[in-house]
Each structure stands twice: as structure tokens, then as C-alpha cells.
Amino acid sequence: MTTALGKHSDELKKLAAGASKIDAVEVTTVTGQNTWIVVTLKHGLITDYEEDRSAKTASWKLTRFDAIDVKRLAIGSARP
Q1: Is the pTM of this model over 0.90?
Q2: pLDDT tens-digit profile of 3-29?
Q3: DSSP letters of 30-80?
Q4: For residue 74, what are the contacts with CB-CB under 8 A and spacing of at least 6?
Q5: Closest-CA residue to 2 (of 62, 63, 58)
Q6: Strand pairing partners for 28?
Q7: Contact residues for 10 (Cβ-Cβ < 8 A; gap 6+)
């Protein structure tokens, strides 16, 4: 995943250095005009944390998660 650097960055860096699992990571993506999907990955390990040269974003992986939950949401009728 790639995230903007912010208050959460130090915690992600610490989690990547240790072996502690994070409770949940939620990813949201738009799939249509008024439709989106929310994917929640639960109890995973943060690995490979690396900040980019511009100091604006960081890349990292979530591995060995225990559960995944997918919700499809829409405002009104779903549109492709």
C-alpha cells in the first residue's frame, strides 16, 4: 500500500520493525458513479515499510492477515 506521510507513519514504522499485528486496515475504492467498496483486512503484520525520497508518501505491505471483510456500498441505486 502507499499512504501519505502523517501522524500514523511512526506507528507503521514501529509495527514493521516488530512482530505485532495491527487490529485492522480499511481500504476504500470507488467503483462507479455512486458506488464504492470498503475492504477491511484484520489482524495483519506490517512489513517492508519504506518512505519515498520526496518525504510525501510511504510504501508498506500488510501480510498474514486473519480475516477479510468486503462491503459494497452505494448512494441510491448502484451505477456501473
Answers
A1: no
A2: 999 999 999 999 999 988 999 999 999
A3: E-SSSEEEEEEEEEEEEEEEEE-TTSSEEEEEEES-SEEEEEEEESSS---
A4: 32, 34, 35, 36
A5: 58
A6: 38
A7: none
